[in-house]
Amino acid sequence: QVQLVESGGGLVQAGESVRLSCTASGRTFSIYAMGWFRQAPEKEREFVSTINWSSGSTYYADFVKGRFIISRDNAKNTVYLQLNNLKTEDTAVYFCALVAYYTGNYYYTNGAEYHYWGQGTQVTVSS
Question: What is the pLDDT averaged over residues 47-69?
């Protein structure tokens, strides 16, 4: 079993930045890709960004528009999401997720394709 633990959320003002972290742990596991999703109140979960674990290639949702940066530290089994120039509409619970093995895609944008999920971390952006 794989555990994902997120951290770094909190209350920030519009225009500020925050960095989220997510560390994977478990007895034995592999990582093909990791990603970030978010869910705002009364809205469906949506894809934010994903990173291919071996190459470091990244892919973002259109609404990110250069404001967010995903990165990883392979040695620490940790993925990061740097959120810059935050807007009130970025308020949501942010979840990290992990794809343990290749299942046919290079980038994974569909939550159903992920094998493990974290518990989420709240990011609240005030105006």
Answer: 95
